[in-house]
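Please annotate the following for my students:
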Amino acid sequence: MSHKGWDGAESMSDLGRRVLAAQPFSDLLGAELTVFEPGRAELRLPLRPQLRQQFGVAHGGVLSYLADNTLTFAGGSVLGPSVLTSEYKISYLEPAVGDVLIARGSVLHVGRRQAVCRCHIFDVKDERETLCATAMGTIRAVSEPATANTSDGDTPAGDTPE
């Protein structure tokens, strides 16, 4: 699968890690980009007590964050670095009770300006992976990402680049 917009000055993995490090929310959660290559992305997140809900399982918002960001990295791997999530749907399958979450995203179809991607999120406990959520979404290329104070006219209000 080809990838657009990557100039080769630094490896895709290095650039992907730099982009993730520039996301304050990802930094707050402690996410790590472990795979970033054409058509695939993987994020890893230690499941700290602060990321769990009142029953001791991962909060659904944490799983949703992983799906959103992993889908966007997968789509960006083929569309280039200026991408946003247009939409996604997540299905929660099992409670996540382990120590680490791993989200694996892949591109199902890529066009000129958008990619349809899927993401499976695994709960890891005692080195055993259990599928706990799955998501599917559409990632689109934008001419210039919106900032906190501006919009490119093509970005829904309140949407931020990932």
About this structure: The CA atoms of residues 57 and 97 lie 5 Å apart. The domain at 12-141 is CATH 3.10.129.10 (Thiol Ester Dehydrase; Chain A). The chain has one domain: 12-141.
